[in-house]
Amino acid sequence: MTPANATLTRSGLRLGALLLLAAGISACSQTDPVRPKIETPKVAESIASMYAPMQDGEETVPGIDVSKMNPKNVRQVVDYKTGYPPGTIVVDPYARFLYLVMENGKAMRYGVGVAKAGMEFKGEADIARKAQWPGWVPTQSMIKRDPERYAPLAAGLPGGIKNPLGARALYLYQDGRDTLYRIHGTNEPWSIGKSVSSGCIRLLNHDIIDLHRRVPKGSKVVVLGPEETGIGEI
């Protein structure tokens, strides 16, 4: 074999090795699993802004992570058929919704937390009082039922972000008498959609601020019974 032929042979061997290596790299790149990119669920900017941190007087209302909310509990306008006139508040405690009846077969729907079994309010009432950042005093029945928890609070708590009534309260009266039931905010946003309260209807602070703004004193409140749950929303 001449020197020139030997040089060509060695060059061919090196070229062949490089091609085999390249083929191997290509094969690995094709067979290696591709890990999918995990993305945080996107939330519409309009919805996120409804539950963003907000300043309300001297209090700061913390924002709510909407991506962790059940979408059905987001404040929204829905189709709603009812004989009650616009301005009426209809509470469906079994579906965990509160509806503010609007014109043209619509209602503003809010997710709510409701009373534990056996402590529910039923029937109709009027909003005789509205309050911003209300104070709170446990009832005698609450103190009797759970003295360890409520007796130290018998003198009441001033209004504020740590108050269990939250940012606003609507006080329900029947025939001019206080029923001791309220529609109010909460400092426990995780409780929305659940049955946890001592009888009252609770909303997210952002939502009770919105509802409080929309309804005047004297507005009618209707709390549905189990046989009426789900009636109205289309």
Detailed description of the structure:
It comes from Ciceribacter thiooxidans. The active site is at residues 184, 200. One of its GO terms (molecular function) is acyltransferase activity. It is an enzyme of class 2 (transferase). Its EC number is 2.3.2.-. With 234 residues, this protein is of the alpha+beta class. It has a single domain, classed as L,D-transpeptidase catalytic domain-like (Beta Barrel). The chain is 24% helix and 26% strand. The chain contains 5 helices and 13 strands. The protein has helices at 3-31, 45-50, 140-145, 147-150, 205-214; strands spanning 54-56, 59-61, 76-79, 89-92, 97-101, 106-111, 114-115, 123-132, 168-174, 177-184, 195-197, 201-202, 220-223. It has a 9-stranded mixed β-sheet with strand order 3-6-5-4-13-8-9-10-12, with helices on one face. Strand 1 (54-56) and strand 2 form a beta hairpin. Mean pLDDT is 84; it is low at 4-13 and 15-32.
